[in-house]
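so im writing up the methods section and need the ZZ-type domain-containing protein record in one place, dumping it here so i stop losing it
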Amino acid sequence: MSTEFSDAALQEADAAIKATEAYEPSKGEKRLNAVGNAVSNASGNSLVSIAQSDAATQALSFVKDQVGNFVQHSKVLMNVLDELGKAHPFIQIAVSIFKAGLTLELTRRENDDKVIALNLTMCDMMQTLTLLKQVVNMKEPGPGGLSIEDRLKQRLGSIIDSIKRCAKVCDSYQKRPTAVKFFTSTKWQGKFTQVAQQFADHKAGIQFDLQIHASVGITTANVTLTAMSTSFTELNENVSKLMEVVFERMRTPEERDLSAFVAKEAGGIDAVLKNDKLLEEVLAKRKFGSGKDVDEKGTKKRVVPGQTPDAVLTVTELRKEVNKDVEQVLADNKVFDQKFEAMKMQVDEVKVEIRHESDRVIDTILAGPHERIVDRDLYHVWKEMGWKGSVKAKHLVMALRDHFAEGSHAALAAIRVITQLKKDGSDPASAAQAMEEIADIANRTDPHASPEDEWALQFISVLRIQPLIEALDDDVSSFVTIAEANAFTAARPQKWSLPHWIAYWTYGFEMTVQWYFRRIRKVISEIAWATVQALPANRKIIADFISSWHVRWIEDFLSGLRDVEQWDNTDWESDGMFLKFKDYVVENERKFEHNLRGVKYYLDEANTLSIVAGDGRPEKYVMPLIFILLRRSLYIVQQAHTVTLHERELMVIQDSILTLTGAISDRVRTLQAVHKLQNLDDKEQMKRFFFGLYSFAFEEPEMSDYWKRDPEVDVNMVNDVPPALASDGDSQQGDLPLFYEPTTEDIDLIPDPTFDDPTSPHPTAAHSLVGHWSGSYAYDDRDGDGLVSFTVSSHGVTGAIAGSGTDAFGPYVVHGTLNDDRLTFVKEYLRLQYGQKVMWRYEGVVAPDSDEIRGQWGPTDVDWQFVVSGEEPEQETGAEEQAIGDVPAQQPEAEEITTPAAEVPEIRVDKAEDAQPDGDAMNANEDHDDDGSSDAGSSFSGITVGFTHGTFFLMRRPVEYLLSCPPDEEFAANRPRALWKLALNAALRAVQGRTLNWGQLSARRKKRQQYIELLKRRHREPWRGQDVEEAQEWAQLIKEIHPDDLHLWRCIAMYQERRDVIQDIICDACKEYPMTPRFTCVNCSEDEVNHTVDLCIKCFSANRHVTRGKKVHHPTHNVVQYRNTKWRVYRHATFDIGRRMLQWAEDQLQLSQARSAVQTTAGDTADSSGLHCVVCKTSITAPPYWCCLSCMEDSVVCYACNERIEREKEWLYLRGPFAPSGAGPHNWFHTLISAPGPEVITAETDQEKAVTMEERIARVEAKLDATNLKLDASNLKLDARLAALEDLLRAVLAR
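--- predicted struct ---
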């Protein structure tokens, strides 16, 4: 190979050397070099932690400076890369992906500094690409025959993957609750380090690709690469140390508070995670979101956990989230891909469109601030008024009004005068001057203005300036800047003139809000009607959605809109004025709908909302988004007619509404701060701003016409979908599937029995585990879910085992390995949970006689250890780091990690099994183990390294043995008697299994009902926990039920839970919460929005009196019964219908009585007219009775039939659509209003009801005291008489 070089190459090399020698680094580069050297030196010293060293302080100072300027620097970098992409199109894809990922963080409402630090490493890598602008020829081949373009194209694929990975990591991390981020900081630090290292590697690769081309004409780039020191050149060489500094020293205030709290506890993070009380304190320190966490009456309630960081966590949920692996969290963030793609599309579509209103050229910016105004009319107004960089919003609006309302008439008058002078042939010089004036007037005239815009001038008036001020003054500062003015004019449709645009904001915007108000109300009405046809399995899901505070917030929000009645007569399809704006409104809605479809209608956080609706005031998009989200809800409810919905399907809409309320909350707080600074009445200002819609967004709603307005009034005022949308594919939601796949109910998944009879003999070899086993598992703080049946079918010579069994959650298979006496196996349920396999890992010790297995169990995806007493746990690498910011395995609910709760056991360890028994108890257990007694209550002597989920025990006996075995206490007290009882119980169970009688069926039915009710109560209120009596009842009950029955009954409970609507309300009499059905007093609630008077069925049946404030509920009041959840906007309309029905029923009774009196006088037979129960057809001659408010025909129901319906609860067993109750059209879910019977009231009882409970108790105590005094007096008299009699007897005996 020749070593000779051409003269040109030698000259180029010589120039490069000289340029390198002449290079002088800047001050900033010198500082960066010093920081990098300091970090490198610190990393080489193993005795000094970087988080505590001086180098860390320097690095932290630099990183904080970069974080502080992140927004400004990143926007500059994106602009530079845009220009670079035009010159080198092959990098445009990577630039678009980079901009999409970076924009997701820039549009987030709040950003974690740690996330910004990670994005800085990405920016540093992308900044290296800017060196391409110095490359002479991108396509010229280099060493190996590859050009720079070819080399970089090979790298771009992995660079794009890393950018997407970084964006997903940041997005997932930001969504984690604060407590979870704190306890899992070490896991996330590792993931951040991994991503940052990828960027460092990519940067080094890009530099290498550029450097090897130094001999082919890129001398300048080579010189720069040799000498430069970019933002993280040295820091990236120590990525792990950099991220250690970031995670240790850049914690949020909340994380620092948690760190200080944990530091006070002995044992650190491990101790805190194992202590429920400490975790409750941790959760109490968290900040709650903007959503309301109260029920309708303002009572504080638990908010259902969603995907947002502000969701309310329970202790169990916190442990579950902490336990998740980072990769699992990333996999769960399924919505990110759609969100990222939507952001990328927006980035690609963004183009700066500046309308050139004329050919005027601005020679210099020094001519004045007005030269930066783009719009011609606004330009002249700003120039004539002599305004600087900003102006009072009111002054600008008034100037625009004068400009359009008066300026046009003045211009016409001037042109008319000038034209007349030209006709008269006056002085030519004056005529020439006049022509210049005409030209100036012409230049000042908007070329888009036309006689067609004359209509708009009437709306540019003083009376309508408030909406225009709100549109111009985007930041509510009372001043309009040049940037805000340009943004206002740039947003107008291309074919609209400025007067048209102003008219939209002064008049058309209010029309738009009123139009959406009616469309939203119509969708609410359609959802209410569609709910009736939903499958019973979807009943609770839909009811929970309607009663959620997310939906109640929408109702509160809409109730603030003013002047609703003034627009009732508007024909929204043909109104000429609205048609001038409708195309723009419909096009905006189409864009919102298109963007929402891109993210599957899931607004998981603020940056997703920004992707969908853009930046700017929420007033621009809140009404369209509410309408679109509710219309999506209607589609889901309609799908519920034919498929079984996933329990979280409508929660996606709730989470989206939650994100929307967050934006509204920020806006309202800004307005409140401005009002406070300006010393204005906030309540009055809210009534004026945005047509009053913010009045009750986060305030207690007041009774108004909104709540008394019948939603059916709005149904016929507007069409469901505008014509422009009806033909658009985006408006048709049928092609967009549900967010989750439809599910199958548990009871339909019960397989046919496939296991051997556990009582049959099964041959076993010595030390083989083949055979039947039974036992149980336990939780951390309560008993487990019952007994388990387990059969080992094979045990190979290598120790591999396989088998199957069943427990409360259904059949399962096991596979594992026995190594000496240590058994490890995986338990995998055959029944899918939301399409996912549910698996758990069991580790235990087999007893020497191979008749017993004891150990602990936990998740399969967490590295936890099981250690027997006396063994030392293996020291894990990085234990010290874990103690600082991470935790060991958590304690989630017993389900597949990717599935919601309540389907599989919650992972806890029973306290009884954790406690070490005393010596006597231990000996007693050891003694009667050989006799075959139960060890259900004994404890395992092993210890656990880290945090696992619970304990278990198995013994080589059929499950019937455990069902027949007496408690351990009986064996300890009298072993022979306990063994005799065991034999008797087993014989009795065998006999009962072969016979059938009513007593057995009745006992079994009672036990099933008891189990189902307790289980539903545990699911309904998991955060409240169980009281002692309930826990004891549950513990005793599950020991008496066969695993097959447990599974069947559990499926029945889940079946009923999906059908039973639980009213999210508190009984005002007994304070029961929640309750079903709901009884609302009409007399006490007609003037209330939220504070209605409600009773549970027990208190209503008992005719309880309720006193609340000045209102006293009597049993004689009319009460509405709800078995379904109703929209609050229907409440007062229901009351009105109820009053009319009661009047109708009363008239029918009076008419029937009058006819009966006439027929009796005439001697005729009474006819069949009058009131008859629609269910049993019994004649009703007087109250009490119920009037149905839902039947097509007027009908009544007797109290006896309604009580029977409530007892039977037929809705809990329906599979198809709602079936009628009885022969008539009346259904059990219809709303009823009571016509109570007269209450017998005497003066004494009336006075008794008027006093308080304390006074009643005091009266009873007084009566008891008086009675005791009388008894004492009687006793004294009796004692005296007995003494006299005794004296008399003594006297007689003395004779």
